[in-house]
Amino acid sequence: MSDSEEHHFESKADAGASKTYPMQAGAIRKGGYIVIKNRPCKVVEVSTSKTGKHGHAKCHFVAIDIFNGKKLEDIVPSSHNCDVPHVDRTEYQLIDISEDGFVSLLTENGNTKDDLKLPTEEPILTQLKDGFAEGKDLAVTVMSAMGEEQINALKDVGPR
Fold first, then answer.
1. What is the pTM of this model?
2. Per-residue pLDDT tens for 129-142?
3. CB within 8 Å of 128: residues ≥ 6 apart
């Protein structure tokens, strides 16, 4: 290889932090999180069948996608590992709502975060727009998991 050849590598990965971690299916409880069909979900129902003639006891999970609200189900042997998403909630102060549907948020270290769209759920969207129009000081809670982020709650922190 000569010195004149240059190689450019494009990295599509982050700093090596995994989006999920393994957890035994039998240890996942109602109210916990699980990945079903590559979507982060909150478990709403778990039922475990007894060990059958073919070995494993099975866990039947009913879960709701945390971003789009769709109901998903999965059946996994209780001794097998399932992927569990790393779910984070962060609170930001709302600064502005742009005409193209993006919000401008103030982070804890004083920077702005401008890459989030307005939520699609009707009650939160209406409260956010009305509260902002009235000049209220609003704090939004952003849930993030598996590389996705979405505003899922807001609260009034007093007048400006």
1. 0.78
2. 888 888 888 899 99
3. 94, 97, 103, 118, 119, 138, 140, 151, 154
